């Protein structure tokens, strides 16, 4: 049975990917940082859990031992290129059949964001390894809405981006299913770059209106500085995210996240999650509470 390693296995893409691959009959090794309740749930689902740090070469080598295919994903933060080098080396040692790499839609060598530039560099590192790789260049997740769900409950839709800048948000589980389908047919996708977006492009203003429509409430769009945004969601001390979001604000203004790709729908053979479906699936997180609303 083919073993597939899923890094960040408790994340928005990793967790559903584990379930999709188990259902498809693969042996799944789920790499996580902590042996906690979520790790227990992964074991109960049928996954093998590997504890480790993507910035520790010994951990990465151990996680990849006996693996044939692997998903490489790294959170927004310091260390991406170093992690990619370690992962590429360990993947080469194991002669992997395929690595699916999570990247960003605006990945490029001259990116203003160090994080975005590091995604591009990580793509190059994995390509240099000689291991077959599929790069997923992904737009903003619909999960961004969950970051501000507490604000939405109080009637505020707050983002640091220009209200008329456009993108087509995609649900994490659609990305996960895309990767799972790629793993099932590695020979069809190795060496390719797939741009993944959701099914409908919105401006941030239009997205706020759509969320309000689904919830049956008027939730006007409110643009704030990146610093204020991070304070509102409890990440005020995260310097990496602040610098990244400031750069992405300009990327959005330049249209680097605009447009709709049919790659995910084509690979998955069906429609993608809509914003309405996503909000309804997570409705308890968004429900407006008049007792805590702002005037």
Automatic annotation (TrEMBL):
Domain NmrA-like: start-end pairs: 3-233
Organism: Streptomyces liangshanensis
PANTHER family, per database record: PRESTALK A DIFFERENTIATION PROTEIN A, PTHR43162
Listed Pfam families: NmrA
Name assigned to this protein: NmrA family NAD(P)-binding protein
Matches recorded under InterPro entries: Ergot_Alk_Oxidoreductase (IPR051604), NAD(P)-bd_dom_sf (IPR036291), NmrA-like (IPR008030)
Superkingdom per UniProt: Bacteria
SUPFAM superfamilies xrefs: NAD(P)-binding Rossmann-fold domains
């Amino acid at each position: 049975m083919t073993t597939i390693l899923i890094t960040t296995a408790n994340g928005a893409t990793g967790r559903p990917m584990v379930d999709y691959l188990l259902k498809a009959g693969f042996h799944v090794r789920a790499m996580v940082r902590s042996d906690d309740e979520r790790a227990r749930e992964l074991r109960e689902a049928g996954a093998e859990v590997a504890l480790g740090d993507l910035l520790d070469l010994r951990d990465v080598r151990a996680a990849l031992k006996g693996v044939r295919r692997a998903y490489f994903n790294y959170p927004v933060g310091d260390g991406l290129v170093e992690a990619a080098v370690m992962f590429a080396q360990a993947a080469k040692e194991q002669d992997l059949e395929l690595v699916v790499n999570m990247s960003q839609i605006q990945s490029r060598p001259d990116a203003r964001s160090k994080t975005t530039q590091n995604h591009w560099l990580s793509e190059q590192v994995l390509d240099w390894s000689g291991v077959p790789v599929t790069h997923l260049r992904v737009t903003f997740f619909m999960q961004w809405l969950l970051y501000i769900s507490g604000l939405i409950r109080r009637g505020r839709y707050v983002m640091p981006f220009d209200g008329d800048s456009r993108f087509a948000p995609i649900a994490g589980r659609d990305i996960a299913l895309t990767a799972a389908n790629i793993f099932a047919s590695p020979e069809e996708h190795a060496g390719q770059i797939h741009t993944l977006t959701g099914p409908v492009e919105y401006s941030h203003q239009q997205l706020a209106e759509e969320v309000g429509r689904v919830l049956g409430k008027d939730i006007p769009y409110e643009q704030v500085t990146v610093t204020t945004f991070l304070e509102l969601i409890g990440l005020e001390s995260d310097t990496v995210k602040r610098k990244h979001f400031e750069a992405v604000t300009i990327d959005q203004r330049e249209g680097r996240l605009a447009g709709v790709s049919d790659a995910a729908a084509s690979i998955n053979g069906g429609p993608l999650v809509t914003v309405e479906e996503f909000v309804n699936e997570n409705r308890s997180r968004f429900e407006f509470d008049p007792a805590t609303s702002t005037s």
